[in-house]
Design a protein that fits this description.
The complex is a heterodimer of chains A (246) and B (280). Chain A has nine helices and ten strands. Chain A is an alpha/beta fold. In chain A, the strands form two sheets. A six-stranded mixed beta sheet of chain A has the order 6-7-8-3-9-10, sandwiched between helices. In chain A, a hairpin with a 2-residue loop joins strand 9 and strand 10. The relative contact order of chain A is 0.18. Chain B has two domains: 198 residues, no CATH class; 81 residues, no CATH class. In chain B, strands 1-2 form a two-stranded antiparallel sheet. Classes of the chains: A alpha/beta (246), B mainly alpha (280). At the A-B interface, helix 2 and helix 3 of A face helix 6 and helix 7 of B.
Chain lengths: 246, 280
């Protein structure tokens, strides 16, 4: 049984085809990267998986259950967690409260009390290293701290599949390496699948993912094991503009 | 707590007032209900304001922010003209039920009800509202409302059924408005005229008070009410007739410079300290 299966997803905004007939299957415990230049349709695909948009065509299955038309708030308890490209903290609430919200309404919804949620929050705040900012208003964090807080918030949802939208944008190479190690550890310890979306940090992709899907102009361009995908001449061309010799 | 401003708030008070008035006038002939009549009136007020909240919420809560506020202004005016135009509940003649109060409870009790017990009821309702708000804030409802106030779309993705929680908040506020209308207006005066109970002025005052004190806080409205009440009183003495002219620019200044209000500012100051627990 696959964890997530997309079948021929198409999403249009007016005349623009943002996602064009994309199919994708992810197994439990898999960590894949979706790469592609700005405007390739990666975030739109994420929004379709998490239920922010409905696709015009195609179906979305989560653990073989058709969730194509399921509202976003019903997907989180099934085990879909995500972070956003531009962090969207609940700014006036503290970091602790933000992360606790994840625990309260994620897969543990209805099973944990407010106090238990706050304890879970503390655990993940420590895990991402924000323990000194626990009681700060989330809106006052730096951009990188906000990203970390969003990861903690998504992890507190105890998702089966974590969607990470540009988790490493704006980080320096050292931070990126740390983040890659962190995600690999997470995958093992929390036994979750991860789809990480990366715009252009190949350093991260190479160290992180077993498999890469490359998107270009809304369509699936390449879906292959990382090494193969990154050395594919077509991919090089999309990324660098021209292949060698031109 | 949701960040949604309801300009139709007074409509729920008005409906609550009618709940009490109708309860007393229609049921006055059932002797032996005694003070139970007041309780029935309060229940009617709650039921009627809940029903109105459901009807209004089903439509208006689909709108966001300012659009919601504008839509709710219409509710109040619309409801008033519906009552007057369609001659529902005596239309524009209103309901005067001093006589029925005397008949049901006897002259002495009726007068005690409208002079003393109505005020006591208001205090009890305020305490109850504070208790419920506090309970909401510390429960999952409070967390959900904070999340949806800050970012409705992110809240949905976190698994929060935003519609459900908006309706919970909306109905809770409507019920207390209805109770307040029943106690502070119906029992106290005791009459109901549509143009008076559906006066938008009260909503505006309530919003000013909340802004002064701090929206989404428990102490905010108390502090805001004190500031507003005292300054209104002194302004009326110093510059009679100019209160509203002076309040308008003050409100604009508050919104621009101190959007969190008095308590909101205080809350940010004490965040992370031992005092935090007490500033709610």
């Amino acid at each position: 049984m696959s964890l997530l299966r997309l079948e021929n997803i198409t999403k249009r905004f007016g005349g623009l085809v943002a996602v064009d007939d994309v199919s994708l299957e992810i197994q439990e415990g898999e960590l894949i990267a979706i790469v592609g230049p700005n405007g390739a349709g990666k975030t739109t695909l994420f929004n379709i998986i998490s239920g922010v948009f409905l696709p015009e065509e195609g179906r979305v299955f989560f653990q073989d259950k058709d969730i194509t038309e399921l509202p976003a708030y019903k997907r989180a308890p099934l085990g879909l967690g995500r972070t956003f490209q531009i962090p969207r903290p609940f700014s006036s609430a503290s970091v602790r409260e933000n992360v606790a919200i994840g625990a309260m309404f994620g897969t543990l919804a209805g099973k944990v009390t407010v106090d238990e949620s706050l304890e879970i929050a503390d655990h993940y705040i420590d895990l991402v290293g924000l323990q000194d900012h626990r009681n700060k208003a989330a809106g006052t964090l730096t951009p990188v701290e906000k990203k970390l807080m969003e990861i903690a918030r998504a992890l507190a949802m105890k998702p089966k599949l974590l969607l990470m939208d540009e988790a490493m944008a704006g980080m320096n190479p050292k931070d990126i390496d740390e983040m890659v190690q962190f995600l690999l550890r997470l995958k093992e310890e929390e036994k979750m699948s991860i789809i990480a979306m990366v715009e252009h940090i190949m350093r991260a992709v190479a160290g992180l993912a077993e498999r890469v899907m490359v998107m270009h102009q809304g369509a699936k361009f390449v879906d292959a094991p990382t090494k193969e995908a990154l050395s594919d001449p077509k991919v090089v061309e999309v990324y660098l503009g021209h292949s060698k010799g031109e | 707590m949701t960040g949604y401003v309801d300009f139709g708030y007074v409509a729920f008070m008005g409906v609550g007032t009618y709940g009490m008035a109708l309860g007393i006038t229609r049921l006055v002939h059932f002797k032996g209900l005694g003070i139970g009549l007041i309780i029935i009136g309060l229940c009617l007020a709650m039921v009627m304001s809940t029903l109105l909240a459901l009807a209004v919420g089903a439509v208006a809560l689909r709108l966001r922010g300012a659009y919601f506020a504008i839509a709710t202004i219409g509710v109040n005016e619309g409801f008033r003209y519906l009552i007057e135009g369609a001659k529902i509940w005596n239309g524009s003649e209103g309901i005067i039920f001093m006589g029925q109060m005397n008949e049901a409870f006897g002259d002495e009790v009726a007068s005690a009800l409208s002079t003393f017990w109505a005020d006591v009821l208001v205090v009890i309702i305020a305490a109850l509202a504070a208790f419920v708000t506090l309970h909401y804030m510390r429960s999952k409802i409070g967390y959900a409302l904070t999340a949806l106030r800050e970012d409705e779309d992110a809240a949905k993705v976190m698994g929060i059924n935003v519609t459900k929680f908006k309706i919970i908040a909306f109905i809770t506020s409507a019920i207390f408005a209805g109770l307040l209308g029943a106690a502070a207006w119906a029992i106290k005066t005791p009459y109901v005229f549509p143009p008076e109970v559906f006066e938008i002025h009260y909503t505006v005052e309530a919003i000013i008070i909340v802004l002064l004190g701090g929206a989404g806080t428990l102490l905010g409205p108390v502090v805001g009410g004190l500031i507003y009440g005292i300054s209104k009183y002194f302004l009326a003495i110093i510059l009679p007739g100019f209160q509203l002219l002076i309040f308008a620019p003050i409100i604009i200044i508050i919104i621009v410079l101190f959007p969190e209000g008095t308590i909101g500012m205080l809350k940010n100051r004490v965040r992370g300290t031992a005092l935090e627990r007490y500033i709610v």
